[in-house]
Amino acid sequence: MYLSIYNTNNISKFFTHQITNKTPEKMISLIFLFFLSLSFTSDGQLYDESKNYEGSSDLVNLEYHMGPVISSPETSLYIIWYGRWNPTHQSTIRDFIYSVSSPARYPSVFDWWKTVRLYRDQTGSNITRTLVLSGEFHDSTYSHGSQLSRFSVQSIIRTAVANKLPLNSLNGLYMVLTSDDVEMQEFCRAICGFHYFTFSTIVGATVPYVWVGNSRKQCPEMCAYPFAQPKPFPGSGFVSREKMKPPNGEVGIDGMISVIAHELAEVSSNPMLNGWYGGEDAMAPTEIADLCLGVYGSGGGGGYMGIVYKDRWRSVYNVNGVGRRKYLIQWVWDLTRNRCFGPNAMN
Predict the structure, then answer these.
(1) Cα separations (Å) of 54 from 36, 102, 124, 299, 341?
(2) pLDDT tens digits for range 293-330
(3) Alpha-carbon gap, residue 278 to 212, rounded angstroms
(4) Residues 319, 329 contacting (CB under 8 angstroms)
(5) Residue 332 bridge partners (DSSP)
(6) Are the C-beta atoms of 174 and 115 separated by less than 8 Å?
C-alpha cells in the first residue's frame, strides 16, 4: 500500500489507524512516510528544515499494564538464519547485535539502547543492559519451505531447538531472520517484522521471539526505506528523491537492521503483550517504537525524517557501532522527555 495523500495531518491520521489496527502478532508498519522531506547534516550543515514534531503522545496514551519486561541482567539472544545467507551480511547483523551492549563512538547504538532501558517492570527492574549473542542455527535447507506464515515461525524455532539451540525459558530471546528469497504471510503488504511469544505446546516453553525478513528482492522501497524509493502514483505529480546510500552498502541488510532495532525495543518492553503499550487492545498494541515511526533525528515527525548524518561516501546514518560500523535506526519513545529521542538529537 502506498500513501496517496501528501498532507501531513492526513498522514498522521493514516498512521494512527495503521498502528492501532494490527493483527494478533505485533507488526511493524510497512509505510515509513515514504514520500516526504528528508534532512541531513555533514560537517554540521543543515540541508532542509521542518517543524520540530519528534513524535506525539497525543495519538496514543502509552501505559504500563503490570506485565514483565525483558529485565535479566544478561539476556541470551539466539539467531536462526533461515534460508541461504551471505556470510558478510551475517557479520553486519552480528555487529549490530554486539553494538547494543558495547560502547562505541558517540552517538552509538549503545547510547540508543539507554533510552529503551528506561522502561521497567512492577518490581523496578529495568530492561536488560546486556544482550549476548549466545547461539546461532543455520536452517539453509528451508525446513519449513520458502513460503511461511507468521504462525510457522514457532515451528522454525522448534526445529532449531531440536537440532542445536538450547530452549532457554529463563533469559532467552529468539530471532528468526529470513533470507531475501523467503516469502512471509503479509510481508511487504502489511509487515516488515513482528514479535510475539512461543506456545509451550509447540516449542516446549513460552519464550519471546522476533521475526524480520530481508526485503531486498521483494519490497526494498517499503521495508528498506530510505535506501530504496517508492514508485510515484500515476498522475500524482510526485517526483522521487535521490536514493540514500546505506551505511553498510546493502539495501536489504541495512533495512533489516532498522527493523531489528524497532522490534528489539518493543519485544523488550512488551514481551508478553501485557507490558508497555498504548491503545485499548492488547492484541493490537501501539508500542514504544510505533510512536516514533519515521523519526530518525531532531525535528523528525509529521512526515519528516529529521536531521541525520552523511559520511564521506555520502552514506546515511545516525548512530555508530562496534568495528567502525554505522547504522540508521529509528528513535523510540523516551519516558523522561515524553517525546521521541535518540543519541543523535541536537537538543
Answers:
(1) 15, 27, 28, 6, 8
(2) 989 999 987 767 899 999 999 999 999 999 999 999 99
(3) 23
(4) yes
(5) 341
(6) no
